[in-house]
Amino acid sequence: MIDTHIHFWNFDPVRDSWISEDMMAIRKDFAPENLLSAYNDLHITGCIAVQANQSEEENHFLLALAGQNEIIKGIVGWVDLLNPNLDERLSYWHNHKTIKGWRHVLQAENRDFILNPAFIAGVKQLKKYNYTYDLLCYHNQLKDIIEMVDQIPDQPFVLDHCGKPDVKSQDLAAWATNIKILASNPNVRCKVSGLLAEADWKNWTEKQLFNCFDVVFEHFGTERIMYGSDWPVMLISRPYQDWFNLVNKYTERFTVAERRLIFSDTAKAFYGV
Q1: What angle do CA 15, 21, 27 make, to 5 degrees?
Q2: What is the pLDDT of residues 96-121, one digit of tens each?
Q3: In order of start, what are the domains of the chain with their CATH numbers?
């Protein structure tokens, strides 16, 4: 089994200012060895390490960890897609085969950034190197994301954290409509990950989360969904095993082959691991 969404960091209160005072559970260092016990218990054999810091130094940090920890099967790094010398940077990173794709924290950007022709041109360059692209956005940005991906028809995308629906309020109608539209693009996949951070951290219900699962599974189908945890961010709510058990319970309704897609095969094919 592959966990498609993991972060590692050496906590820095300035660089990591997004980790606020009410997130004390994750205001510390997180390394691969902190995952091994849970992974061994659950028979998870690998993960995709995703950038948490928007710098090329982050790529070197994650590559060093991957070199020391075979559990890291691939890396989603960061590169400046607006860099006039982007092709040179992509060519350089292409020598590091553990890097499978790229991500920018689009949830912190506005429509003008997401639909900037120069940014879109940068994403278009990824196909030359067979790179994937992770889409990180809030539910109220999905219309812009749809408009963006429609301009890059042959690029493999994956939507992180189901597009961050408002699990807490359960105001899901507009999100569900946009998920349906986005999922109509065959080049987009979806990670079932990260929803605990969008819920009432301590008082969410299984039904609230399953309502969100219902939407993404209806529209993406079992063949375009991959399991992810968003560890350690999810620890603000529950231990790792609780999230895994929740996804595992929901997916019991599917066949063995479908579950293999969700927990392993789709991720392996998408990220080339």
Answers
A1: 55
A2: 999 999 999 999 999 999 999 999 99
A3: 79-271 (3.20.20.140)
